Amino acid sequence: MPPQNYSPNPHFSLVLTTPLQLKTKTGWKYSQAMGVTNKKSIAALVSVLITVSLLRLLWITIRTSTNTPITSMPPALVIACSSPRDCNKTTQHRKRPSTGQPPSFSNASALTDKEYHLLSHLISQRAPCNILVFGLEHQYLAVASLLNAGGTTIFLEDNPTKLGNADTHPKYIQVKEVRYKTYAKEAYKLLKHARKNPGCAPNSGLHDMPRCRLALTELPEEVYKTKWDVVIVDGPSGEGPESPGRMAAIYTASILARTGNMTNVMVHDVDRMIEKWFSWEFLCDENLISSKGRFWNFHIAKEVNSTRFCTT
Q: Is 0.70 topped by the overall pTM?
């Protein structure tokens, strides 16, 4: 028999197309609902992350601000302190006479626990080594006594009161007097002077730099001859515009470091403008390898022939 003409049932066609249409409409509504839900979920997640970050920042700020600096201690107790916390515990039972005077700037800027640990960790890695310190503080004496007994540590101090106990230190620790001729109020003028004066370039050398006002050219001869592994700048006090500032100390430390062999230069109180300015200028941010609190640690390569301090 010849095939009969086939005419689709319109109702059957409707039955076939209706589920597809329903599926399409349902899917569109579902995706629309999911889009709204996803937006709400993302907004909620972002809010939670921001809240957690703020709480963490607040916790770090509170913890950092509550770090208790070390107060000064008698020289006889220096050896007994292995950390700032030990120093505090050791000196808590000792009664100090009340002078009615505010604490000195050196005590106010003493190393915190984190700063002390940064220093002691560095010294322990490089010891026995040669350490030069601008400023005589008990914390640095403790580190040198405990961790660098087989090396050499020289302190440069301008305060006559601190120089009075120089004979009580071990033989491998020396304390030398230094005199600063530049004052904190001159910092900006000295910075411009160093930038314009070719005699302040790092390849001039400290002995041949009489024209550079920042160069400390009257230090003990062994300071210039020694290849320093670590140089610490925490002196002079720089506690006022009429006091000697740390401009010359930071500059001289940068020159000495460039004659050594991968020298670490550590500058304290970098929250102050002079310390920050002169560290960036002569030690350079490209050499900054670590920091804790107000303590910056620069790693300076040997560059005796360089005409610039920083490459950028």
A: no
CA 92 to chain CA centroid, Å, is 29
Residue 159 gets which letter from DSSP? -
- Residue among 272, 260, 273, 269 at smallest CA distance from 300: 260
Return the exposure string of 210-225: e unless at least 16 CB atoms fall within 10 Å of the residue's CB, then b. eebbbbbeebeeebbe
Task: Tell me the angle at which helices 247-257 and 187-196 cross, rounded to the nearest 10 degrees.
Answer: 30
Tens-place pLDDT, residues 247-293: 999 999 999 999 988 999 999 999 999 999 999 999 999 999 999 99
The residues near 247 (Cβ < 8 Å, ≥ 6 apart) are 182, 184, 186, 187, 190, 191, 214, 274, 278
**CA 66 from centroid of its chain's CA atoms:** 18
Strands 295-300 and 263-268: antiparallel
Phi then psi for residue 56, to 5 deg, are: -65, -40
Label residue 142 exposed, middle or buried (CB < 10 Å: 0-12, 13-18, 19+). Answer: buried
For 123, 160, 203, 254, 307, the CA distances from 230, given in Å and listed in that order, are 8, 25, 20, 11, 23
For residue 94, the Cα-to-chain-centroid distance in whole angstroms is 32
Q: For tokens 């992350």, what's the residue?
A: 49
